[in-house]
Amino acid sequence: MPPLAAGVLSNLSGRKNETFEVSVISPLSGALNNCDRDLAYSFDDGPSIYHGEVEMLFDNAKAKYTSFVNGMNWSCIYDENNVQTLRKAVAAGHQIGSHTWSHAHLNSLSPEQQDLEIERLEEALWKIIGRVPAYFRPPYGECDKNCVERLNKKHGLTVVTWDVDSGDSVGASPSASIATLNALKYPQPHMPLSHETYQSSVETVAPAVVPSLQKQGYKLMTIQQCLGGKVPPYKIIGRPQERDETWTCANNV
Ligand SMILES: [Zn+2]
């Protein structure tokens, strides 16, 4: 068992009788900003009320996406609609990655506070989907060398950023985002950034861009797949739990 998932495993100590699989060997090191092949469309800051539309679009297009989620950002991850959304996305083969508990500026936190940001979300996802993500995207792309090393070594996380920004979080219009993403040329690999918290990113940009990228020849796949499948998408795989009094976003860190 790697030391990497120590935080989560200590949280799981009350569940000794349950078998679970620890599947990570070692993460990809450094912070990766692009795929090895094809294109990994990603949606950050969820789960949001638009996530179901993202999933329907990608399922209908026979494509996969990656969702980097928070514990408490726009809503609480334990809300029942978020729980159902996440379970459905995992069942459909999309990838869920970590984006910290509270959408934190990691570089301004102490190592202990960084650990809390990682572990509190890991605990939530372990309970909700029975899986602990092996991939992480730092909010704002902010994670300096020490931060990346800590995430790699202590938490066993593969750290990814992006190579193309749709611009949705900094005020780009939907048509500007569509132009940015439609300018990508197959077979150059890409790892574009977008956010599922903006209605236009989900209802206007993605529906315009997904078919045109596919028409060029891109396979739209998860980040784990576009990085060659060398590291599995989840550090630990068990089974989802049932809601209890610990499923709360109170006492937010
Ligand atoms: Zn974010």
TrEMBL record:
GO terms for cellular component: plasma membrane; side of membrane. Its cofactor is Co(2+). Residues 37-221 form the NodB homology domain. PROSITE patterns: NODB. It is found in: Cell membrane. Keywords: Carbohydrate metabolism, Glycoprotein, GPI-anchor, Hydrolase, Lipoprotein, Membrane, Metal-binding, Signal. GO terms for molecular function: hydrolase activity, acting on carbon-nitrogen (but not peptide) bonds; metal ion binding. It comes from the Eukaryota. It is a lipid-anchor; GPI-anchor. One of its GO terms (biological process) is carbohydrate metabolic process. InterPro entries: Glyco_hydro/deAcase_b/a-brl, NODB_dom. Its main location: membrane. This is Glycoside hydrolase/deacetylase.
